[in-house]
Task: structure prediction
Amino acid sequence: MKNKTKASKKSAKKSKKEEEIEQSAKLQEESQEQKAEGRKEKADNKAEEVEDIASVDEAIEVIAQLKLKLRESEEEKKQLSERVLRLQADFDNFRKRKTKELADGIRFANQDLILQLLPILDNFDRTLKAIEGTDNLTAIKEGIELVSSNFRKQFSKIGVEPIDSIGKDFDSEIHEAITSIPVEEEEKKGAVVDEVEKGYKFKDRIIRFSKVIVGE
Result:
């Protein structure tokens, strides 16, 4: 009996010792787990820091690219503005030149006509000079006819032609009747029998009506 009691006490002491060992092992295990979690947490924080640093670097790079694009855009805008100013200046010069050319064209529009009429004036001067030194009416008449002929030739060159009216039927499109006179010939009735002032046309346009006398 005593032996059984002694064995029981010994067994109880052993169980307590095992419990202590198990508890100690459990505490160590928990401690190791806590340490592992701490290391894991530190690793996570470190990764977040690295990620944050990477994000900042990317942001700096994006900002740098945006600044570069902004400078390029400003340079392009500057070049476009300068080009617009040059085009505006060229257009202003072109407009001024055309305005001057138009004004000169209007101002000197009759220059060619004057140049063609000057030889006729020269002939008039020569005829007047010849008349002063002669009493020959035939020569004077020939001189005046020569001047008149030259005058008509110059008019013809620029498109001015006289209207042939005598003996033609009266036409209100080219004739202006001054008066009418009775005529015996049947074919002269309604026709131009005399011309008071010759009419002219310029390139198919009537520039002056013939003032005529019409038979009736």
